Amino acid sequence: MENFQYYAPTKVVFGKGTENKAGQLVKEQNCRKVLIHYGSGSVKRSGLLDRIFASLDEEGISYISLGGVVPNPRLSLVYEGIDLCRREGVDFILAVGGGSVIDSAKAIGYGVENEGDVWDFYERKRQACGCLPIGVVLTIAAAGSEMSDSSVITNENGWLKRGYNSSYCRPKFAVMNPELTMTLPKYQTASGCVDIMMHTMERYFNHCDNMELTDGISEHLLRTVMKNAKILMDEPQCYKARAEVMWAGSLSHNGLMACGNDGGDWACHQLEHELGGMFDVAHGAGLAAVWGSWARYVCDALPDRFEQFAVNVMGVENGDDKNAVIQKGIEAMENFFRQIEMPTDLGGLNIEVSEDQMKELALKCSHFGKRTIGCVKKLNQEDIYRIYQKAAD
Amino acid sequence: MENFQYYAPTKVVFGKGTENKAGQLVKEQNCRKVLIHYGSGSVKRSGLLDRIFASLDEEGISYISLGGVVPNPRLSLVYEGIDLCRREGVDFILAVGGGSVIDSAKAIGYGVENEGDVWDFYERKRQACGCLPIGVVLTIAAAGSEMSDSSVITNENGWLKRGYNSSYCRPKFAVMNPELTMTLPKYQTASGCVDIMMHTMERYFNHCDNMELTDGISEHLLRTVMKNAKILMDEPQCYKARAEVMWAGSLSHNGLMACGNDGGDWACHQLEHELGGMFDVAHGAGLAAVWGSWARYVCDALPDRFEQFAVNVMGVENGDDKNAVIQKGIEAMENFFRQIEMPTDLGGLNIEVSEDQMKELALKCSHFGKRTIGCVKKLNQEDIYRIYQKAAD
């Protein structure tokens, strides 16, 4: 068991109608001026944005807004947001949306509080010394950014997708009304469920003597998300299933699943980041598309853990042939992905990846051959290329 | 499923040697002067207190100390602490100990930050408007006070034991080294395990449509504590078991187990508080002594839940006769208590409670007949008396 730090200071306000408390929660932050940051038209069309405005108006809070965040949020909009906040004296950002909007808000927050180019942090050239405080009204259950210390941005110059983690960006509060996620299309719902599961699975697969408290919580979370993801395919309006998935999204990425382990593998996330940067695929779908190939490539390095996963999470019957159990576990996960209409290979993403592009992906993912990814097996440029190739088969 | 708030901002620093980070963690709080609050001689004898002093000295932090906290911490020492803090200009309290020390520190913190008698809060006469910031070096896994919003104090004037909850008192950080708990006597270890379990069980038994994510986490936590409590009876030096129990203690009472439910029953805690106030019994042991009598008295009001508990937590085989399953579940829990040498009735506490004393307990517990306790079944003075009587049989 490893020593660990756990720090998840976000105040969660969860349930029906909670978005109407946004103004009151912002008020508690004692700020002068708020940037309301959001994405595309859906939060406008649904009337959510107007309700948020009204809630802030009611408390007499001064604000401006900046929309236009897209999935795989762009650095150019982050720069625009930084300029805007500086010009207008913004000292609090309220992100209304999903992971992309929150991540974009965090990047703007870093940019305002630190001198120099904010992209430096994402390139790991230096560390941030602070971040504007962030609040969240969550509309998509997926990224877990509403409680997490992470933010992922795409630089259009080279289409590089990079993440940066620090406690400074953990949101002060997160308003989470599962009803707001009910209108999400099936594909986005399913993709979100995969993303949530992967935040736990990335941490679950590691070489430590894991904490059994964390293991059991992780396994229960994975089973609960699978069960409710399947319910949502048929009943997208089911409040209970939306709520289970939404809360799982936060717990999966707020640090709880890393308690007592070494933080996990994260190779799949890095494999997907390159795909997301180059082809703009949905993050969860991209993760589903590479997971099986990754798992088969590395499972012999961690057989006990993959066996435990097969039995405790996927319900595979234990047997003498450990390798058979492991393979059944991986297949069962892929079958689940299929049940919720998620891809299990690159073809399923409806993209065509040429040989040359696969080499380029592997080159970027290994930071031009200078780094390995993952801990279950440390994967170099050649390993990464082979996993992409398996996923393309 | 109920709407909920979840707010657990304590930074947890968990693992071997972490007490040496106390100075650094206090330093981050930017305070002028620290009160180091502790209990009896054991933290002195073990050298822990000296290491804490050294860690603060290293950071150049100014501090004073106040020891003498006893189990069921007393209001008189709280008053003394408030005077001392005011006189010395203390603006941060570092509690070195278990739940009693932390609760005493919280009460002192309330007293310093609010005018008037601090006991008013515990009598629910008024609400606190703040609390001095608290840090914790934990030495006993039990109360969960290191992350919780609660504090329980005993007023020697009438031997009233009362709790007060507010977010103001949630500790800023908690240093948790499981090694520090290795020298605890068997009885105190077992009593702590019961206390931990009860913080989850109090929330688990309620009339809501519960969140399955919370249910499964709760059930896993209970199973994990039972397993590791039994290990500790034979191997008190087992680091892994100490760590599982210690982390379970925090998760059990930081709010996680109330997500999506209505906050729970809490009758057993109130039944025990009166016992603790009058007879000074160990809190966990007192809880174990009343739980079975409470469970049998109320289970017919919540049969599905008690059945789920029997099957998912206690491993009772499900069957057609629901009541038989429920009774087996209650018996299995009492058998577990016996396995770790905890009482299952008042006799097991080595106290003799007279008829008159039972009536007095029921009178106080019902706030002189003016209140009911619990939600599984709302228990009035007569119900409370009968449960004590059953527990005395």
TrEMBL record, chains A, B:
One cellular component GO annotation, for this chain's record?
A: cytosol
Q: GO molecular function of the protein, one example?
A: methylglyoxal reductase (NADPH) (acetol producing) activity
Q: Which Pfam families match?
A: ADH_Fe_C, Fe-ADH
InterPro entries in the record:
ADH_Fe/GldA, ADH_Fe_C, ADH_Fe_CS, BDH-like
What protein does this entry describe? Iron-containing alcohol dehydrogenase
Write the record's keywords in alphabetical order, separated by commas: Oxidoreductase
- Domain Fe-containing alcohol dehydrogenase-like C-terminal, first and last residues per copy: 189-391
All residue ranges annotated as the Alcohol dehydrogenase iron-type/glycerol dehydrogenase GldA domain in the record: 9-178
